[in-house]
Amino acid sequence: MAGGQSRKSRVTTHILDTAVGRPARGVAVQLAARTPDGWQEIGSGVTDDDGRIMDLGPSDLAPGEYRLDVEAGAYHRHQQLDAFFSQLCVGFVIRDTVSHYHVPLLLSPFAVSVYRGS
């Protein structure tokens, strides 16, 4: 499911560029689900001017393992910066299918911090 729809998905993200102290605009992110045959992409998007993707994937998700694949290298190349991380893979488990899962990242060329937001 591509970004651009006007509803909030079960999983959202917000990426801040801590090297410059502002939202990371234009970061491509894919949402994947673990299936018996491996990982399957179920959604994708690009961060907006505020560094957010609110329509990353389906509004309903089954319990299971999921991951965000964040294209950090492409973002930093666009900023004309050398960076250590080319792609970040953030895996997490969904148990409660009613809850919202917000997964923010604090990103710089040589460090990353991820947490479960609200």
Automatic annotation (TrEMBL):
UniProt EC number: 3.5.2.17
Statement: the UniProt record of this protein carries the keyword Coiled coil: no
Key words, A-Z: Hydrolase, Purine metabolism
Coiled coil: none
Domain Transthyretin/hydroxyisourate hydrolase: 11-117
Record Pfam families: Transthyretin (PF00576)
Cross-referenced InterPro entries: Hydroxyisourate_hydrolase, Thyroxine_BS, Transthyretin/HIU_hydrolase, Transthyretin/HIU_hydrolase_d, Transthyretin/HIU_hydrolase_sf
Protein name as catalogued: 5-hydroxyisourate hydrolase
